[in-house]
Amino acid sequence: VTDGTLDLRTGEDVNGVVITFTDKETEISGTLLDAAGRPTPEFSIVVFTTNRAFWTAGSRRVQSVRPATNGTFRIAGLPAGEYSMVAVTDLEPGALSDPGVLDQLQGAAFKITLAEGEKKKQDLKIQGR
Q: From CA 44, how far away is CA 31, in angstroms rounded?
């Protein structure tokens, strides 16, 4: 229900419909490191589902965050599933609502899987050029 719409009409039979809530929040935290291994806040971290059906505007399965000045970051509340994770230099407003942008980012990203309520630590290191 939270990833789409449920259209109910008056008098419609909803027997068999089950909606499950959880209080087990997922979390990915870590530190963004530059090519020399020093913490850096100079990039954004983007995490997005590998399931293209959820590459929509406002999807809770697509998130980005800027690290703190010490390079640490935290992304919470993603539903369980497989995700792509990548650090990027610039993000245009609304870019993460564009499936074409996510498709390009996927080429540089690595996969990370989250189980319900799982908390993972994942540092990212920017590769030198």
A: 12
Digit-coded pLDDT (tens) for 3-43: 656 677 888 888 887 777 777 889 999 999 999 999 999 99
How is residue 84 written in tokens? 């792509």
How far, rounded to the nearest angstrom, does the alpha carbon of residue 68 sit from its chain's CA centroid? 18
Strand partners, 65: 45
Cβ atoms of 41 and 27 within 8 Å: the answer is no
- The pTM of the full predicted model, rounded to 2 decimals, is 0.83
Q: Distance between CA atoms of 75 and 90, rounded to whole angstroms?
A: 18
The tokens for 107 are 């080429």
Helices (H), 1-129: 99-106
Instruction: Please report, for the chain, how many H helices and E strands are present, in that order.
Output: 1, 8
- 79 DSSP assignment: P
